[in-house]
Amino acid sequence: MSESGKSILRFDNVTFAFNDGKHIILEEANFSVRENTKITIMWQNGAGKSTMFKLILWELKPKMWKVNLDWNAKVAISRQVIPRDQMDFTVTEYFATAFEEKDHQLDRKVIRVLDEVNLPGVDVKKPLHTFSWWQQARLLLAHALIQEPDILLLDEPTNNLDADGIGNLITFLLSYEKTVIVISHDADFLNMFTDWVLYLNRDRKLVEQYRWDYYDVVDQIQAAIDKEIKQNARMEKQIEHAKDKINEFSNKWWKMRKIAKKMKAEVEQAEENKVEVRKDDKTIAPFIIEFENFVGPIVTINSLSLMWPDYTPIDVPFNLVLKKKQRVLLEWPNGIGKTTLLKRLVNEQADSGAVLAEEMRVWYYSQDFNALDMNMVVRDALHEITNEATDQMVYKAAARMLLTGELLKQPIYTLSEGQKWLLCYARFVLQKPHLLILDEPTNHINFRHLPVIAEALNKYEGAILMVSHDEHFLSQLDRIEREELGRLVGR
Fold first, then answer.
1. 405/491 Cα distance (integer angstroms)
2. Quick one: pLDDT at residue 334?
3. Are residues 328 and 197 located together in one domain of the fold?
4. CA-to-CA distance for 415 and 401, rounded, in angstroms?
5. CB of 393 closer than 8 Å to CB of 383
6. Backbone angles phi, psi at 306, to 5 degrees
7. What angle do CA 229, 231, 233 make, to 5 degrees?
């Protein structure tokens, strides 16, 4: 895939399918990855990006032929979230799971790798659930790096990182002298280091290879689509013209009918020569978040509980009154306690420093899916949000978020991370909230959906309290008021 270096990973005519071959992900896919390259996996909805990682890790086996990995190459993955059954592990216990056998140098390796991911001095005896989301994101990366992989797989690595954290990650990747394969929805982040793009074409079940930076590849793919559409348009015009002549000649004397027969053969050949235009990625349908009118303050915040740079909690005065059509972005660096603050607010805790108006419907879009029962069936998770939702309303809201009837019958834990987030959006469409509290609302979301989500939020007439580090998404929102909280604790 690169102009120099040996091949470290190769897919040879790989075919893979689910459901006894009914759901084909790849069909005779061929590509290779050379050592020390930075690769982005670009996908269409349902194309199987997670499946690709599992095939590389040999967690799944292809139906036909094989995935070839250099015999001494080691692969490690930085996943999106720490497994729930490991959240009570200490840092040391968590890193021990990276090795099949006991490593007597583990303590030394842990100290080194924590320094690499900018987490020096961490108490390695603390359980994982006590760490913030941004700290967990760095622990996930460190868990992969401690294995010293030749191929590093990164699954949405920018989730839960602020601008400084993303900058540190980019710097690390640019200097990392091994092969890196990344799945991410953050186009600006991808464009900073990508050498090659693997495009998972859902319709053709193939993996296409593209050179150069991410935005250039996006343009190349769109140009290919436009070219195919224009080519087919020309063919269609020729075919229609020929068909008109065939109809005219067929009703004339026998010599004309002979010409018509010949032209029919040419039309059939032209039909065969039409190219199969790839279908552009399907986005969620436009949707509306209804707001039942309310006069007066929806929420009043009098103080905030934040963290000093040494992680000591402190209550600071802060005055904010949110009314309808008002949207406020809370800006703060990682480690200041944003998730704790938002959870206190949504649960109306006495020490949250906030007062909600009576009978307010609040929807909290949380990073840990804590509003979802993972064992609940998707359809039931939509019905439980309001007693007013009929089956028709549930199916309509789900369909707009690309949640099919088949998915509605499955438990939530079977959904992909992106589908879980879309389920959350479907739930607050049904709930009709007065206040939306959004904690990193673009995490795990395919970037093609983001303009639709931005449009819905712009039309929403309720109040919005938001935390987001996705400046590209924020640029699509109207009337955003920014409140910088780092200044309150000298950060």
1. 48
2. 63
3. no
4. 13
5. no
6. -120, 180
7. 70
What's the rounded mean pLDDT across residues 447-463? 90
- Residue that has been written with the tokens 């309720």 in this structure: 462
Domain identity same for 373 and 470: yes
Q: In whole numbers, what is the pLDDT of the chain averaged over residues?
A: 81
- Domain hosting 37: range is 7-218
Q: Say if 280 falls within a structural domain.
A: no
Which are the contacts of 174, defined by CB distance < 8 A and separation ≥ 6? Answer: 192, 193
| CB crowding 439-449: b at 16 or more within 10 Å, else e | bbbbbbbbbeb
The tens digit of pLDDT for each residue in 34-92 reads: 999 999 988 765 567 788 889 999 888 887 667 888 878 899 999 988 888 999 999 99
- The pLDDT score that the predictor gives to residue 147 is 95
Q: Which amino acid is at 328?
A: V
Both 181 and 303 in one domain: the answer is: no
DSSP string covering 364-413, please? EE-TT-TTS-TTSBHHHHHHTT-TT--HHHHHHHHHHTT--HHHHTSBGG
| Number of structural domains the chain divides into | 3
Q: Which residues, including other chains, have CB under 8 Å from residue 183's CB and lie 6 or more apart?
A: 40, 41, 43, 49, 50, 53, 153, 154, 155, 156
Query: pLDDT tens across 252-305, in order?
Result: 555 565 665 666 666 666 666 555 555 556 788 999 999 888 888 888 887 776
In a domain, 286, yes or no: no
Position 281 in a domain? no
With vertex at residue 92, the alpha carbon angle to CA 86 and CA 97, rounded to the nearest 5 degrees, is: 55
Backbone angles phi, psi at 437, to 5 degrees: -110, 110
Per-residue confidence band for 2, with pLDDT thresholds at 50, 70 and 90? very low
Six-digit token pair at 425?
A: 């959006």
- Using N-to-C axis directions, what is the helix angle for 214-250 and 254-273, rounded to 10°? 170
Q: Look at residue 47 in the predicted model and tell me its pLDDT.
A: 63
In this predicted structure, the answer to whether residue 242 has a pLDDT above a threshold of 80 is: no
Task: Answer yes or no: do 340 and 472 share one domain.
Answer: yes
- Record the tokens describing residue 159, joined without a space: 């989730």
78 contacts 144 by C-beta, under 8 angstroms? yes
Q: Judge contact between 2 and 36, C-beta under 8 A.
A: yes
Q: Per-residue pLDDT averaged across 161-182, rounded?
A: 86
* Eight-class DSSP state of 348: T
Q: Which helix or strand (DSSP H or E) is residue 115 part of? A: helix 106-116
What are the structure tokens assigned to 174, written together? 């640019």
Share of the chain above pLDDT 90, in %: 25
If we measure between CA atoms, which residue out of 409, 441, 410, 411 comes closest to residue 424? 441
Domain CATH number, residue 453: 3.40.50.300
Q: How far apart are CA 361 and CA 396, in angstroms?
A: 21
- What is the arrangement of strands in the sheet containing 179-183, beginning at the earlier edge strand? 75-78, 151-155, 179-183, 38-43, 196-201, 206-211
